Amino acid sequence: MASPTTTVISDLSVALVLDKVPLADWLVILPIALCIGTGAVLMMLRKSIRLHATIAISSLGLLVFLNAALLRKVVFDGPFTMVMGRWLPPFGIAFTADLTGALLALAASIVAFAAAIHASVDIDNSGRRYGFFPFLMLLMAGVNGAFLTGDIFNLYVWFEVLLISSFGLIVLGSTREQIDGALKYAILNLIGTTLFLISVGYLYAIFGTLNMADIALKATELRATAPLMTLATLFALAFAMKAAAFPVNFWLPASYHTPRIVVSALFGGLLTKVGIYSLLRVMVMLFPVEREELSLVIAISAVLTMVLGAMGALAQNDIRRMLGYIVISGIGYMMAGVAIGTPAGVGGAIFYALHSVVLMTALYLVAGHAARLGGGWTLTALGGLYKRAPWFSAAALALFFAGSGLPPFSGFWPKAVLVKSALDIGAWWLAAGILLSGFIATIAFGRVFILCFWRPQTVEAPVPSIPPPKPPSFAPVVILTALVVFFGLFPQTLLDLSQQAAEGLGNPARYIQSVFPQGGNP
């Protein structure tokens, strides 16, 4: 009888990372762990709802600090990666922080911190018992996870985390209008999620890997034989639906006006930007050749998104519906940057995404304060707000100027960059669409300010049925307005960071090196 063969124990360093993980590298997963851990603690303390706001605000303040430290490390040291389970990529699930993800994660944490402060005085005991603050923390876990993951299936997983959390937030209150909006939101987002999952399965069948750096390495070799154009088109459609781009944007105006205003602020500021981030990551970094082939289609969709969104805003009487269309219009500007594809164009899209995260959150909070001061949500019901609250009206006017893209506010600079980038490649009609959309948005915002703030309140105005705002709830508007003004007056730092982030997407050599320091798996 033959003796059994001797088993040779291979060198574990071939498969596993045996070195001690540097302390600073934990920054890439600490934001996600913090949000999940805080959400779990809040659910365990579901009967102690008085503690929810304090715990959530403290955790989100810490989240801002962690993401600021993460951004600082990326700026000085470049992209870096941590792989779960200490398995070497592409087998382990990688979390990779680069400049694009770190910038958006920091912006998201700032607006979540501001929204939590607003919610501490705006969300009543009923809303807290139904889990507003746990859902908020889990939403932020999904958002941060999406911005920092280096695995495309993990991107899908974090999309699911933030979507499930958003389902809980959108029905908070359980009114008939909220249930109706939640049903439309859920069904149409599930269609986009299913398309995303099909695309991921198709991608794995072609590449045999889900690691983004590995895909970027292999795409050049497989381009001649694999149907990458079909794959890129599927991803573009899935992310366009997530981002609410024309013609798959009909779910957003049907749902964003229905939840509590602080929930609408979070949705308007964050959720569509995750779709845009995913579009940038996949189309610019992974499939640049296919993006170039699809650039005309993306550009046409961008123009229709921004112009029709601005026209939809001009036609609304309800401020919340009007802001939903402003969100859609802003998506068009970011898609224009994707269509242009140059470092300047992509940088303009990243700058606009950062601006929009802050601006849209602030505008929804302003709408909530206006409704509480004036007793209604419609342009016909509101009036005389400037006389009642002049400083609040001044902040609102600054945000309206920023939303219109007028100087000296943060919305002006990314639009200027995008217009110049479009003209540089000869796409004058795309530049004209950007300018036309901005002009229509200026009229829409001017209409709101004249009717709601400048016009004296009429005798027929309703008696306020919404409780008046409490002073602490004005603090988030002040914080976010200050950011909009500051980056409008001093835009150079953000312009430089956005440009560097765009160059990192277009030339992902440092991103790939952070995942594969030895040049990749043979």
Low-confidence stretches: 1-9, 461-465
Secondary structure class reads: mainly alpha
Helical region count? 21
Regarding quaternary structure, how should these chains be classified? Answer: single chain
Mean pLDDT: 86
Major sheet description = 2 strands, antiparallel
- What proportion strand? under 5%
Q: Helicity level, as a percent range?
A: over 70%
In total, the number of strands is 2
Q: What's the overall geometry?
A: globular
Rounded to an integer, what's the Rg over CA atoms?
A: 23 Å
- Strand sequence of the main sheet, in spatial order? 1-2
Characterization of this structure:
The protein contains 21 helices and 2 strands. With 522 residues, it is mainly α. The chain has a two-stranded antiparallel sheet with strand order 1-2. The protein is globular, with a radius of gyration of 23 Å.
Q: What features would you highlight for this structure?
A:
globular, two-stranded antiparallel sheet, 2 strands, 21 helices, 522 residues, mainly alpha
List the helices and strands and how they pair.
Layout: H1 30-44, H2 52-77, E1 80-83, E2 94-97, H3 99-122, H4 125-129, H5 132-148, H6 152-170, H7 176-207, H8 212-222, H9 228-243, H10 261-286, H11 288-293, H12 295-314, H13 319-340, H14 343-374, H15 385-388, H16 390-404, H17 412-424, H18 428-454, H19 475-489, H20 492-506, H21 509-515
Antiparallel strand pairs: 1-2
